[in-house]
Amino acid sequence: MVTFLDALRQRYGAADDTAYDDDAFLVSTSKPKFRQKKWEMVGLEETRVKQADHSKLTVVSLPEAGIDKAESEPGQLKDARLLRVRDLDLSRNETLTLPEIDTIVRNLPALQELQLNNIPLPTLQVAEKWKYLRTLTLNHTGLSWDHIDALAALPRLVELHFEANNLRTFGRDESAVLPSVTVLNIAANNIDSWDFAPHVARQFPALKELRLHGNPLRCPADPVQLLTTLETLWLANAAMEGAQAVNWIAAQCPRLVSLRVSYGTLLPGMSEAQARMCVIASVPTLTSLNNGTVRPKERADAELFYLQRALRTTDAEERGQSYPRWVELETKYKSVMTASPEDASAPAAVMLRLTFRSLGNPDTVKTLPSSLTVGKLKSIVSTIWRDMTPDKQRLAFCSGDEVGAMPAQPLDDDMQTLAHFGVGTGAIIEVLDHEKPER
């Protein structure tokens, strides 16, 4: 039998050194067994004393600790005075039952976040002491959606995680409403239809963030009302593909500021940098994409990349369907475009101010059209540094926006234009010599 307090002492130490044998310490009177050490010899005494005072713990993480009992005798947890614990992780303690979990929760009066991942739960009953919880994680517990009704007893619940529970149905019309929940995670549940959306919208009227990654969802023919109020959406590894899917997301989510997608799944055939630019330009409200901030310069580069792709599309109907923002962006960037869609003889281009950088040489700045091919760019480089002939060059570019910028992207196709690669004004062209090793 392993109690909660046993696991706590094992993980965070005990006030009395005698609770440990000699091999528990890195430095001891006998030869240490490094695989069993619990303390590093860095502020050993101070760390041991600080952690051993369990009454000061605010975060307790005990995943896979073999816990099967809350306490060995009544009153032990109360006597431990764990009055400050706000965040508790009991994940993967697979023999822990709901009554034992309830005993633990009842003795943690400050608890706000509880993780019960990978604990088989045949049912869900919430006691009165759970009412202060703000975040509850029930991933991979085997619970059904009907069990969510029990959470109506948690008036402060803001964040609910219900991932990987093999959901097929989403309850009844009379299912309980959880009015305070703003974040819902139902990822990896094999959901392949948007039929769940009306149920979720009714149960979670304050929802702002929805995580659906890992579900084989496709774009439906009809609008999804649930999405219209969302500010954050996770759709990585869904079954959506192509520009039409990106445009569908933009149309369905007018308030969206944060999005997570899988570039390779959503826009196959594009590099990660190109796919990112297409998504940013398609969704004008985004300020964060795949946990990366969308900076003003990145948005400008993305929108110009999007516009140039649109203007290279000669079929007007296809252009309108694939690039619905092209008219808006053409007006926005008219002053920097060198051709219009009516001028079919000349490719649409943007004049780019580029900085050429080569190791051991001073930087050189030139203004060139985005319609220039990489092959011609190499010829220009050879006029700047005459010893660097095109056959010796390897080119890459970075945005020039140092804060949070993506790594340098290779310009690895001599026949493609700078616009194809998404090179924006202010970019830095890195010129590497094939014959010289990189530093």
Automatic annotation (TrEMBL):
Keywords assigned by UniProt, alphabetized: Leucine-rich repeat, Repeat
Ranges of residues in domain Ubiquitin-like: 352-432
PANTHER family assigned to the protein according to its UniProt record, in alphabetical order: CILIA- AND FLAGELLA-ASSOCIATED PROTEIN 410-RELATED (PTHR18849:SF0), LEUCINE RICH REPEAT PROTEIN (PTHR18849)
Protein name: Ubiquitin-like domain-containing protein
Organism: Neobodo designis
Lineage of the organism: Eukaryota, Discoba, Euglenozoa, Kinetoplastea, Metakinetoplastina
